[in-house]
Amino acid sequence: MELTRTTKLATAMLLVLNLTACVDDGTDGVNGINGQDGVDGISGVSTFVTRADVVNTNANIAYAVYSDSLISAVALRESLQQLVDAPSASSFAEAKQAWLAAREPYGQSEVYRFRSGPIDALKPDGTLGVEGDGPEGRINAWPLGEAIIDYVAVIVDGDSNPESPANALSNNIIANSDDYSQINKSTLQSLFEYGEDERNVTTGYHAIEFLLWGQDLNADKTGSGERDNTGGQRPFSDYYSANNGHESACTSGEQAVVDQTCMRRGDYLLAAADVLIDDLTAIATSWEPNVGVHYNAFVAGGNVSLAKILEGMGRLSFGELAGERINIALTTDSQEDEHSCFSDNTHRDIYLNAKGVQNSYNANYIRINGEIIQGASIHDLLVVEGFHELANQLRGALEQTQLNASVIDTHAKTGTPFDVLIQQSVQQPNILAVINSLVSQTDVIEQVIGALGVTTNDLRQDTGEF
């Protein structure tokens, strides 16, 4: 199966070759000299690192991360097509694996939010508006009110419906062929956040996740009682139809239904992938070196762009990751409030989001093909400008967060996923350790902002959790 995934990835990379050209990683600096050992005897830190170098490297890494996200989404789309064309245990497993692989680069891209960049502010016409105008919600919004997409269990561990009953659709999109005769990109986009209800998520990674895994209904399959260590229970027979050569009945869970339902479910899966690819293409294009409008403006932004890098690092650390993505799920003990609640992949969300912050500080990113993109870092800049102790303090804080996140990652990979960890009082200290280290690194990021003399918005504005 590994060979198959590799082949698909190579195909996907060819399809987006125009977005993956080699780029200058910013290592040489604006003076064309690099590798000078000896800023107060510190080996490997160039005396020629400038703020412009740091900004340039950050932009090049952003392009690489979003390009990898796009490449992985194209590979995911191919796997989904194979599942729809020939549903089987193997094609179902491969589609799930492709989804998990696609989350790896995207999780590291979250640090480019909260800085008025394309992910938050890119408008359909390709220009930048304000935070909230961009495609982030269509790409990664959660939690879902999944009852508007497909069938759900009567009892679930959390709320699978919209925030307001008034914003519920009649039946669900897949079942309701009278109101939605065709399921395509336009249908999904027109119903996104229907009634201005943020739980009415019809597109993005988590809509695809729900259609692959289904709801995580715990050991008793009702949503009540003790949680087990597996993800959702959707069977691959949910994609059976005479259209793809199956004589066995199309299902919705354990119930046999008409073929049309499975065909529409397949249409939905592919349409959601198409919307995802369109959105990621627009973002990658806007970051394309020397071509993208945002790239050119960002690398010319000087201290303003440096401030945006630090603001994104701090706001993701504190409000989004520590608050919204971890602490809410912990304090409510709700599977519906964990980030990847259907696949039980939340441990990777936590680890990769934190890794993205560390990548931005160290100016280092490993691409999905193994290529290393690196260059002038904020750590280098702090040392060059005389803030040696602060540089090491932030590096240490980021390393501590990664260590704490890796504990959660290890627990999940050895049979105790995030949704079980938040139930077990003996393991909650592991969760709290990640939260506390994210808060601590935000404290140091604020000190760095002050030391470098740049101006940012409040790093703690995105949550009321603390």
CATH topology: A middle domain of Talin 1
Total helix count? 15
Q: Judging by the overall fold, what is the CATH architecture?
A: Up-down Bundle
Taking the sheet with the most strands, its summary is: 2 strands, antiparallel
- Determine the fraction of residues in helical runs and give it as a percent range: 40-55%
Estimated radius of gyration: 22 Å
| Basic shape | globular
Q: Strands of the largest sheet, in order across it? A: 1-2
Series of secondary-structure elements, N-terminal to C-terminal: HHHHHHHEEHHHHEEHHHH
* Beta-strand fraction estimate: under 5%
Number of strands: 4
Instruction: Give the class from helix and strand content and strand pairing.
Output: mainly alpha
By CATH, the superfamily comes out as M75 peptidase, HXXE motif
Low-confidence stretches: 1-7, 13-43
Estimate nothing, just give the exact number of structural domains.
Answer: 1
Quaternary class: single chain
Keywords, please?
single chain; 466 residues; mainly alpha; A middle domain of Talin 1; two-stranded antiparallel ribbon; 4 strands; 51% helix; globular; disordered N terminus
Explain what you see.
The protein has 466 residues and is an all-alpha fold. The protein is 51% helix and 3% strand. The protein has a two-stranded antiparallel sheet with strand order 1-2. The chain has a two-stranded antiparallel ribbon with strand order 3-4. A hairpin with a 5-residue loop joins strand 3 (364-366) and strand 4 (372-374). Helix 3 (89-109) packs antiparallel against helix 7. The longest helix has 35 residues, at 51-85. It starts with a helix and ends in a 14-residue tail after the last helix. The relative contact order is 0.14.
